[in-house]
Amino acid sequence: MGIDLQLPDINVTSLKEAPIHFFRQIQPHGVLLVLEEPELKILQISSNTWNIFGINPENVLHKKLEDLLDPFQIERIKTGLSEDNLEFINPTKIWVRKKGDDYVVFDAVFHRNAEGFLILELEPAISRENIPFLSFYHLARASINQLEKTSNLRDFCQIIVQEVRKVTGFDRVMLYKFDDDGHGSVIAEEKLASMEPYLGLHYPESDIPKPARKLFVSNSIRLIPDSYAEPVQILPANNPVSDRPVDLTNSILRSAASCHTEYLHNMGVGASLTISLIKDQKLWGLIACHHQSPKYVSYELRKACEFLGRVIFSEISAREETEDYDYRMSLTHIQSLLVEYMSQEENFIDGLVKYQPNLLNLTSAQGAAVCFGDHCTVIGETPKEEDLNYLVQWLKNNVDEEVFYTDSLPQIYPDAERFKNVASGLLAIPISRRNYVLWFRPEVIQTVNWGGDPHKAFEVSQTEGNVRLCPRKSFELWKETVRLTSLPWQAVEIKAALELRKAIVNIVLRQADELAQLAQDLERSNAELKKFAYVASHDLQEPLNQVANYVQLLEMRYQGELDEDANEFITYAVEGVSLMQTLIDDVLVYSKVDTQAIAFQPTQVETALERALSNLRQRILETGATITHDALPTVMAGSTQLMQLFQNLIANAIKFRSDQPLQIHVGAERLEDEWLFWVRDNGIGIDPQFSDRIFVIFQRLHTRDEYPGTGMGLAICKKIIECHRGRIWVESQLGEGATFYFTIPVGGRERERRNGRKTQNNIFG
Questions:
Q1: What is the residue range of the signal peptide feature (predicted)?
Q2: Is the pTM of this model over 0.70?
């Protein structure tokens, strides 16, 4: 026998997960018959009938059960089979006549397999009487009395193994509990003093592979009375109706897999009895009974142990829930506070991190992060922001569940080894496909005691072309130092995280609805304001034109007849009318900015600049200004708005020129996802304390006598840039000129609008 895990033709996983419920063999202490209903025709039978009741199997095959049993028994069996639940007739005492006048009495157990065949299993009855009810009652009552004397869960488990060993007489009885990772450990043990202890030892998942676990769930009690007994064949090997081996999932006589019997032999076990402990339709653990020599346990006593195990395990489940009740109530209180905090804040994230208790307390974590949009808000000890971004991307690509948790993140996400000191454990809940709440736990180095080296849990044997798994031979204590793991996440913590997820989703949905309503109200209000500004401006034009016309007419008709004061008053009136017309024109331009920016298109910035310079040609000639520019790109923008922007900025530079020759330069530079432009002059400059004020509508830093104007030019510039989803600002010092900067995103406003709609639509996936 040799180990060879490198052979390319060997699939170890398929060997570990090979089906074991389709079998052609049974254990030799009983007889198995496969029957076809309703005639109860014998389709298959075990080959040991001669040894059990002195009849050759060939003489039984293809006959009916009534050819083997007397009419009284057949009538009783058919009556029992008509019931929906076969447990009402199991076990049934059956007697079979041997040669001569001798009878052999059996415990008969019926069940129907998934293929619809009736399976009859016969075990020789040790006694002809069933266990009296009162005897079983006293047995169970004594065990329960013992259990009621302790409140500690470990002591409770120890009483279970003591009572089961007392009832069955096995040399060793263990309570074996499965971990979340599939491995298991012995949490209670009662044994002969001379036997090696297994208490506290861990055993690898491969000791009880997946197919065996499925059978333990389906068939909750399993007896192997003699692990060294040679199995007997089922004749014929394949069922004549289905043409394949019979499904023996619920069989009590099913032969053990050779790998399992070798495992028992390596442990020095001659007989075993296993009772399944099921919780929430999953295999929680096993009560495993071992005997050093062959040992038969009657069907009645096995069922008594099964019932006792179920009663006792219901108490275990209750004790487990009681032990974490206080913690669960504490987490529920924290959860309710977090929901209250989130509801009070405009941003729900503030409600999770600003107060006490906070997000960390909900799961007893050392660090947490709320990754929402493009930003992660962190609390406690967490990975760096860059690592968080990569981790969220990994979760997005690999996790579809409502909750994801692991106490060994580096083993499934190798990059996590860099931050193992803060995040070897991860609990994550998705708020949407790209938004997550994360909790972290640091690495905790542990020493685990194994029953044998878990890395050598099995061998692969290849002899004469046959490949099979062989169990390890050593079960001696083997210590392992476990790294890159954290303390495990408890079920109540995971449940609390899920409940928080529901609350966050509800709050975000509610806030999204509120924002949508506000946006709708704001859009309606803006539309009304624009309409008012436009209508009001047009309505003002007519009376203003009348004032202008009549003042001019007054000046023309009475020219030379008015005194100096009257002429001065007329001049003031004309200037006021002109200023008012300019203000109205600017208000109209301001109100139209975003409505004109609906259709963005590729726009050559140089062309927009040349149009602006053409409009300002006369003022440029009058001032002798020198205007230069860099090579300018093409951007997605409104060409008219871009022209208006340059016209206002250059006109502003011309207006606020100094005594030296005016020089204006327009530049551009490509940044990561936007274009940066600037208009630089050598004019009088601006006091930095007013750098924000100058962009406010109707705000002026000088009197109209010093510098004429309405104070609208830069406000219009700001609105144009905001419509392009860019930014505008100024850098300047008094007497040193000014540089106005503005940005336009690559792709322009249309891309931003599409992204905005996509973001809104994808908040929840």
A1: none
A2: no
